[in-house]
Write a structure and sequence with these properties.
two-stranded parallel sheet; 13 strands; binds nicotinamide-adenine-dinucleotide; binds 2'deoxy-thymidine-5'-diphospho-alpha-D-glucose
C-alpha cells in the first residue's frame, strides 16, 4: 500500500491535493503534517478527516525530532512537500521565517527521506525561481533550462530549496523530482492572495487594491490541474528531473480584477491603484512542453471556467473565509494596505 506524506496540507494547494488523491487513489494512505501557521486551517481538512485512509499530524517540518518520529512510525513510500511560507508581500516584510521553513524545513525532510530508506521525494516549487520576463516579449517563456534568477526573499528561499533537493539527488542518489508551477487559483485559496482578495473585497463592496498600474502578467492555473500534474510526476516522472507546470493562461492583473467585478456585478469604481510591490516581477509565463511530451499532462480547466468555479466556491463557502478575515487577518490587512 502506498503511504504518502503531504506536508503543508492544511493550506491551499496541499489541501486540494489531498482531496484529489483521496478520490483518485482510494487505496492510498495519506498522512498530512502541518503546523497550522496563519495560512493553515483545519476546517479545510474536515471532510478528509472522515476518511479512514487519512491522518493529520500537527507538526513543524523544521522540527527534526518530530519529523523523524513520524517517518519512523509511518513507513512512507513518498513525500510531497507543499509546506512553505508562500506570500511574496509577507516575505518582503519578514524574510526570516521564509528562510527557516522553506530552506531548512526542506533539508530536514530530505534527511528523513535518506535516513528511513531512500524515500521518493517531490518538491513543490514555483515559476518565481526563474525571476520575470519582460512585458514586451510575449514570445519568451520559462523552460526548465531558464537560469534561476530570483527577485523576492520568497522566491530566493524557494530557489535555495530546489538547489538543495537537486544536491541530495546528485550527492546521495536520493530519488527526487521538482515541479515549478505558475500561479494557482481555486477553492481554499487564502484571502491575502490576488484572486480571493478581490472576490471577497468585491463581495463586501470594499476597495480593490491593484498594485502599480495593474499591468503585471501572471499565468493562471486552476489548482486541480496542478494536483493532477504532481500526481503524474510522482508516479511516472523521471528521477532527478525538473518539470514546469502551466497552462498558457496569461492575464494582466487588471484584467483578472475586471473579470471578477463583472462576474459579481460590481462597479469598476471599486478599483484603487495603490503603491507597487517592491521588486515586483513583471511577467510569468510557463512553457509546459516537457510535462506534456513526457507525461501527457494537459490542463483541463480554462481560465474562463476556472474563475467562474472559484467565484461560485467563495459564494457558497462564506463560513470558510469569514472566519479567516476576522482578527489577525484584519491587522495584516491594515498593515499592508492602510494608507497605501
Ligand atoms: P499556503 O500558504 O496556502 O499553505 C502553506 C501551508 O504550509 C499552510 O497550511 C501552513 O500551515 C503550512 N506550513 C507553513 N510552515 C510550515 C512548517 N514549518 N511546518 C509545517 N507546515 C507548515 O501555500 P500554497 O499556496 O498552498 O502553496 C503550497 C506550495 O506550493 C508552496 O511550497 C508554494 O511555494 C508552492 N506554489 C504555490 C503556488 C501558488 O500559486 N499558490 C504556485 C506554485 C507553487
Ligand atoms: O507564480 C507562482 C506564485 O504565485 C507562488 O509561488 C506564490 O506562492 C503565490 O503567492 C503567487 O505569487 P504572486 O506574487 O504572483 O501572487 P499574489 O496573489 O500575491 O499576486 C498576484 C499579482 O497580483 C501580483 O502581480 C501582485 C498583484 N496584487 C496582489 C495583491 C495581493 C495586487 O495588485 N494587489 C493585491 O492586493
Amino acid at each position: 500500500m502506498k503511504n504518502i506524506l503531504v506536508t503543508g496540507g492544511a493550506g491551499f494547494i496541499g489541501s486540494n491535493y489531498i482531496y484529489y488523491m483521496l478520490e483518485k487513489h482510494p487505496d492510498y494512505r495519506i498522512v498530512c503534517i502541518d503546523n497550522l501557521t496563519y495560512a493553515g486551517n483545519l476546517e479545510t481538512l474536515k471532510k478528509a478527516m472522515e476518511n479512514k485512509n487519512f491522518r493529520f499530524v500537527r507538526g513543524d517540518i523544521t522540527d527534526r525530532k518530530a519529523v523523524n518520529s513520524i517517518f519512523k512510525a509511518e513507513g512512507f513510500t513518498a513525500v510531497v512537500n507543499f509546506a512553505a511560507e508562500s506570500h511574496v508581500d509577507r516575505s518582503i516584510e519578514e524574510p526570516e521565517v521564509f528562510l527557516k521553513t522553506n530552506i531548512l524545513g526542506t533539508q530536514v525532510l530530505l534527511d528523513a527521506c535518506r535516513k528511513f530508506g531512500n524515500i521518493r521525494y517531490h518538491q513543490v516549487s514555483t515559476d518565481e525561481v526563474y525571476g520575470d520576463l519582460p512585458l514586451d516579449r510575449p514570445d519568451l517563456f520559462f523552460t526548465e533550462n531558464t537560469p534561476i534568477h530570483t527577485s523576492s526573499p520568497y522566491s530566493a528561499s524557494k530557489a535555495s530549496a530546489d538547489l538543495i533537493v537537486m544536491a541530495y539527488y546528485r550527492t546521495y542518489g536520493l530519488p527526487v523530482t521538482v515541479s515549478r508551477c505558475s500561479n494557482n487559483y481555486g477553492p481554499y485559496h487564502f484571502p491575502e492572495k490576488l484572486i480571493p482578495l478581490m472576490i471577497i473585497n468585491a463581495l463586501n463592496k470594499k476597495e480593490l487594491p491593484v498594485y502599480g498600474e495593474g499591468l503585471n502578467v501572471r499565468d493562471w492555473l486552476y489548482v486541480k490541474d496542478h494536483c493532477k500534474a504532481i500526481d503524474m510526476i510522482v508516479e511516472n516522472g523521471r528521477i532527478g528531473e525538473v518539470y514546469n507546470i502551466g497552462g498558457h493562461n496569461e492575464r494582466t492583473n487588471i484584467d483578472v480584477v475586471k473579470t471578477i467585478i463583472k462576474i459579481l456585478g460590481r462597479d469598476e469604481s471599486l478599483i484603487k491603484y495603490v503603491k507597487d510591490r517592491p521588486g515586483h516581477d513583471l511577467r510569468y509565463a510557463i512553457d509546459p512542453t516537457k510535462i506534456k511530451n513526457e507525461l501527457g499532462w494537459e490542463p483541463e480547466t480554462t481560465f474562463e471556467e476556472g474563475i467562474q468555479l472559484t467565484v461560485k466556491w467563495y459564494l457558497e463557502n462564506r463560513y470558510w473565509w469569514e472566519n479567516i478575515i476576522n482578527g489577525e487577518y484584519m491587522k495584516y490587512y491594515e498593515k499592508m494596505y492602510g494608507g497605501r
